[in-house]
Amino acid sequence: MAAVAKDGLNTAGSRTVFVLAACALGAALLAYSQTLAFAWDEGFHLLAAQLIKAGKRPYLDFVFAQTPLNAYWNAAWMRVFGESWRGIHAIDALLATAAVILAAGFVRSRFEAGGKRAWAAVLVLAGANIEVVRFGPIGQAYALSLLLMLIAFRLTVASAERDELIFAAFAGLAAGAAAGSTLLTAPAAPLLLLWMSVASLPGRRIVRGVVFVAGVLVSWTPMLALFAQSPARVLFDIFEYHMFYRRSDWPGATRHDLELFATWVESPQAILLVVLAAAGIWYASKYSGWERLRRMEFLLCGWLALGLSLYISTAHPTFVQYYLLPVPFLAIPASAGLHAVAERFAAKRPERLTAAVCALVALGTAKGIYDEREGLDWPRLEAVADKVNEVTPPGAPLYADEPTYFLAKRVPPPGNEYLSSHKLRLAADFSEFVHITPQSEFDRRIASGAYSTVETCEDETWIQQRRLEDLYRQKAGISDCMVFWDKKAAPKN
Predict the structure, then answer these.
(1) N vs C: which end of the chain shows fewer Cβ within 10 Å?
(2) Do 484 and 468 contact (CB within 8 A), yes or no?
(3) Quick one: pLDDT at residue 205?
(4) Are residues 385 and 433 in the same domain?
């Protein structure tokens, strides 16, 4: 295996196969995005975008425990497609596809013999990874941040290869924007900067680092503008919330994390990806015969995957979908590992081994998605929102979940934009300052009959604790959710 020649992989036929394969991946993700793709927390993100579209500002007007770029991105697309999850899903499916294409395109440009097998492996190992499929084509920040990290990676490599400062500046811009979409990608920028300084010529390291950092700062201009208006609110939402309050009212958070870490042992896809990536990095370092810069590029992928994984593991609690962010950076060296294994153990027909591995990955994801087909999704929640709009007069007070506010196009009462914030117990003045209302206050309002309608997808215990069946004459169960309306008259003294 050698560094790619300029001719062999750039024929019209090779480009056509690559484009067709990329289009097939995009079509599959797009189809999934319009049918089964759904995550509960997505409702909070789409509601935030809807509020931004209506003129509200995150942090300043409502609590938003995320960096803001993805919410503004979604709000911009809502102005194009309307306030619909379908348009946002379609865009994110294309963004996730583009991220995988950038990873596969990088590998395609680095391989000569067996190049088709190498980039095809990336398309499957990354594009058909079950967490990428589940969470890439949805309204959360995963697709946008994946694409921005891959852009930053490609530009960082190009900056070292071509010795042009413009690539370093835009690499910093993309890396900073990825962190501006979700802080889960925060390690990418310093790791890329460190690699760039090592790979650069001694006389160019400082200037290249300066323009990279300048790009990061430019990407954070929207955040800095919000920070200038209310530093305390921005710091609380983005940093203090996660550092000190994220575990509130979750006594099993530590056990949850330990159980999640244990699931990796039971995940064939995760084991295969890590083992192949380790083999690929070992091969690139010891046996490839590549020039120094080419070896360093594959090592960079390994450092990015490791740095992201370790950082994500410090989130408390953490979730399995967070680990989709290192997947493309594992898939790149994994393609080299699979290529080397196929050449070593299936020299006569290496393409068969590659095809078998890719087929197993794709079939595993297909089975996982099929097994989840009966779960809650956006079409089912649309029926819930339709019922809410049917029984709730316009402008009447409504207590509901974030997805229902979004679908019903109802403005939540102040403090109800992010239901997870209800569990926080803060000093009254500060709680009001950061737009957080505790659940106890909402419970008091529910008990007093303040809401014309109450909708919830919580379990039966939650409903019984608030005596909703005693407070409302009518109810309807739709999918896993309940709608209560027609308040009973308050008893006379």
Answers:
(1) C
(2) yes
(3) 83
(4) yes
Q: Are 172 and 214 within 8 A, CB to CB?
A: yes
In whole angstroms, what is the distance from residue 330 CA to residue 313 CA? Answer: 16
Same domain, 401 and 365: no
Q: Is residue 493 part of a domain?
A: no
Q: How many domains does one find in the chain?
A: 2
HEC sequence for 288-354: CCCCHHHHHHHHHHHHHHHHHHHHHHCCCCCCHHHHHCCHHHHHHHHHHHHHHHHHHHCCCCHHHHH
Q: Using pLDDT thresholds of 50, 70 and 90, give the confidence band for residue 490.
A: low
State the residue range of the domain holding 476: 378-487
Give me 133's structure tokens.
């499929």
Give the per-residue SS3 of 251-285.
Answer: CCHHHHHHHHHHHHHHCHHHHHHHHHHHHHHHHHH
Whether 367 and 441 map to the same domain: the answer is: no
- Band of pLDDT at residue 8, cut at 50, 70 and 90: very low
Beta bridge partners of 472: 487
In a domain, 202, yes or no: yes
Within a domain: 392: yes
CA angle 300, 306, 307 (to 5 degrees): 85
22-38 pLDDT per residue, tens: 999 999 999 999 999 99
Token pair, residue 294, equals 């080419």
pLDDT at position 7 is: 38
Residue 1 lies in a domain: no
Report residue 342's pLDDT band, with 50, 70 and 90 as the boundaries: confident
Residue 115 confidence (pLDDT): 65
pTM exceeds 0.85: yes
CA pair distance 227, 233, nearest whole angstrom: 8
